[in-house]
Amino acid sequence: MKGDIGVIGLAVMGQNLILNMNDHGYKVVAHNRTAEKVDEFLQGPAKGTNIIGAYSLQELVDKLESPRKIMLMVRAGDVVDSFIDKLVPLLDKGDIIIDGGNTNFPDTNRRVAALKEKGIHFIGSGVSGGEEGARFGPSIMPGGSPEAWPFVKPIFQAISAKTENNEPCCDWVGNDGAGHFVKMVHNGIEYGDMQLITEAYQFMKDGLGMTHDEMQSVFIEWNKTELNSYLVEITSDILGYKDTDGEPLVEKILDTAGQKGTGKWTGINALDMGIPLTLITESVFARCLSSLKDQRVEAEELFGKKESIVEGDKQVWIEALRQALLASKIISYAQGFMLMREASNENGWDLNYGNVALMWRGGCIIRSAFLSNIRDAYDIDPELSFLGSDSYFKGILENSMSAWRKVAAKSMEVGIPMPSMTSALTFLDGYTTARLPANLLQAQRDYFGAHTYERVDKPKGEFFHTNWTGKGGDVSSTTYNS
Length: 482
Ligand code: NBP
Prior knowledge:
Bound molecules: nicotinamide 8-bromo-adenine dinucleotide phosphate
Distance between the termini: 57 Å
Number of helices: 19
Oligomer: single chain
Low-confidence stretches: none
Helix content: 40-55%
């Protein structure tokens, strides 16, 4: 009997996805560039299962049922292209290649188009949840050639995480690179959620002088509220974790954050598309700033910086902080969905935002109760342009406003950096201001560069130039927006 699906790449993600597929009754053919890893896998974790090994791509192809489904779980980038190039001559028209790695979506756009010309279907799929997710139920975000989806759907939906109502956290996202785009935004949101939590931690630790056990209890309590999420849960575990000497391990970890690029891609896309994705971008910059450790140590000494203690009732501050965190999180997701909306419109992807929220509901790093509310919001209005306008989220933003402002103002006053919480508030203030000072900005642009402006008392689309000094000419620059 031939295999249902082939998987190339026997590192942590590939192995765990294969075992997951096997658990769900699928016969998987496993291949890896370094052949010894196939044997190690078959004699190790895959021992006693129905998993079959393949030591060459030809063997892999020969052992698969038609149409063949071959999933790449290898390092993103050139390695994916190289496997595609080697596979194509061995495949038949209608066969399917799936890239489950962390690929930048323009690469998926390119591969879908190139393979279509050869009659091969291509799916680019985000997979989130790390090692444990891959093994027991990840969030899976597939996009690409829609013709391929019916063949892959039963396998992906079987192995994916499920919501509390047993809905699979996996559905078709859209054409071309839509799946990898949505996975990229997921990772950007993950950056934002993590940064917000770290800001709350620093406020509690440095501002309120709380112990790690106290902070752990706060996160345990917060996890029983609207903030209920995987990241809040693991934060409480981390804060309670003691090193061998009984001290909190977290304080022994160097404060320089790493990154693998998906947050940066999200920020770059937001800039390209003109979407004010301020919170995620601040979170990426916060990681960049953290990596300037030596400079920060010198600068702290140079400026003689000392944060002052936050005065007042600790419990009142903790509740204010919870509200500030929740409100900021709403803004982060609102911005992320704005970005997806713009990308969907630009690329004709017809994204279903409620489904995206559902796919993130379980299995992935940003899984949270909150995502059910986002799904409800898009069920009520599938074209919602700003999540904060939905009555549930609007209510939270309004109720949290005063506490959020107090936390933001206090952080500025005492010198605790909270770039994401404060930028979220600034965004909302800007978004809810009907008249911003961009009129002055337009005047400046026209003054120095004859860039023209529109007038509030004339129809939109009519452009004016003023000779502000009497010395410049009346010729204006070409009007366009980049
Ligand atoms: P890695 O990203 O570490 O990739 C390891 C695989 O790539 C191995 O099969 C390795 O073969 C193969 N490979 C490499 Br590296 N260079 C190669 C080359 N030049 N030619 C052929 N094969 C090559 O594995 P992973 O951490 O399991 O991740 C797989 C994908 O899933 C990545 O795109 C990753 O970004 C994504 N992802 C990872 C996680 C996670 O938590 N780790 C979560 C979600 C998504 P070899 O054994 O012969 O060296």
